[in-house]
Structures are given as C-alpha cells and as structure tokens.
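Cross-check.
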Amino acid sequence: MYVKWDDSYSNGIEVFDNQHKGLFKLINDLHDGIREKKNREALGTALVALMDYTKTHFADEENAMRLAGYPDYEKHKTKHVAFIAQVSDIRDRYLNNEPVMTMELVALLVNWLKNHIQTVDRAYGPHLKASGA
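Predicted model, tokenized:
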C-alpha cells in the first residue's frame, strides 16, 4: 500500500472521510498498476476511475458546503476546479500517448490530496457539523 489512511486525515464528517478513504484506495490502485507495469488500458481505466470518483466526491463536498452556507465555499470550489483541470490534462496527455503514468504522477496526486484533506477539507468540518451535516 503506497498511501494509507489514518485519523490525521479525518475532518469529522463520516461521509467525506469515507470518500477520502476511497480516493486513497484508487490512488493505491493506480500506483500498483504502474508498479506492476500493467497495460495502457488498465492504467487508463484506473486513471478514469480516480477522476470520476474525485469529481463525484468534489460535487458532494461542494453541495454540502453550499447548503450549510460555508463561508469559504467559493475558494474551496476553486481548488477543486484547478485539481480536476490538472488531472484532466494528465488524462488527455495519456490518451495522446505521452508518458505521464509515472510514480511522480502518483506522488503528485498523493501530496495534493493529503495537503488538501489536512488543511482545506479539515477547515469545513466544524462548520458542517455545527450546521447538522
């Protein structure tokens, strides 16, 4: 396992903690596929699964923040949009046969996710809890 969940990533909102665990699993799947030198189709499938799950997770978070009147909603959403654009660019380059499926890519994804969860996502936890999320 490349990246492992621990309680330092928890923001206290169970549904989002569980989704974050799902993101960790998908990153581990991508890591394993690269390490095991899986074929292009398998790696592409892993990347698309990660993108799709990330988009769904971001939409769920954004909806909860919006409904709870979270004051940093727009700033948070902007970070989501930038990350999706970055990963979409990687996907597009991969589909154009550029060599982007590397351990450096996995490290980038892990670092972004860890930092985002432990700082930006942790910040909305108390607000959502107080609003009954």
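The chain has four helices and no strands. Residues 12-130 form a domain with the Four Helix Bundle (Hemerythrin (Met), subunit A) fold (CATH 1.20.120.50). Passed to J.P. for a second look.
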